[in-house]
Write a structure and sequence with these properties.
Elements: H1 3-8, E1 17-18, E2 24-25, H2 27-34, H3 38-44, E3 50-51, E4 57-58, H4 60-67, H5 69-78, E5 80-81, E6 85-88, E7 91-94, H6 95-102, H7 104-113, H8 123-136, H9 142-150
Antiparallel strand pairs: 1-2, 3-4, 3-5, 6-7
Length: 151
């Protein structure tokens, strides 16, 4: 297997962050993408998250912590990358958008049959990723975002 394939399945996993284009990058890939001054971008970039079957954003570390190493890694591989989009009525939407538009069951059915779209991240999803990042780095307590979501 090529080195990149081995790195993709490394354990413990290499941390990846979301670049300005919505795609996940390792530190080396992030440096190549952003060039000079990449470190400042890396520090504030959202950690790679994916959508679990319910549409909730999860990290690989969270899945491994809650499900154990084997089941957590399996769940991570099955989770949908945040930048993956598919077409619904000619609009490129994320997995979460499908669930929000059509409900959980119908949304999953439509997602499974939908044609792929250009990868990307919507403005609202980018905001959610940044919220998760602020919580991760301790800039904002998680309870604040829970309260905001309840309003």
């Amino acid at each position: 297997a090529p080195p990149s394939a081995r790195l993709a399945h490394a354990w413990p996993p290499l941390e990846r962050r979301i670049g300005a284009d919505g795609a996940p990058y390792s530190a080396a890939q992030f440096q190549a993408f952003h060039g000079k001054g990449w470190e400042s971008h890396w520090l504030v970039a959202p950690t790679e998250l994916r959508f679990c079957a319910s549409g909730r954003l999860v990290s690989r570390a969270e899945l491994v912590r809650t499900m154990g190493a084997i089941e957590g890694r399996r769940a991570w591989r099955q989770a949908v990358p945040v930048d993956e989009r598919r077409l619904l009525q000619a609009a490129p939407l994320s997995f979460k958008d499908f669930l929000d538009c059509a409900g959980r069951e119908r949304g999953r059915e439509l997602w499974a049959r939908a044609a792929p779209a250009e990868p990307g991240v919507s403005t609202s999803l980018w905001a959610a990723l940044l919220q998760q990042t602020a919580v991760r780095v301790g800039q904002v307590p998680e309870a604040i975002f829970t309260m905001i979501q309840l309003v």
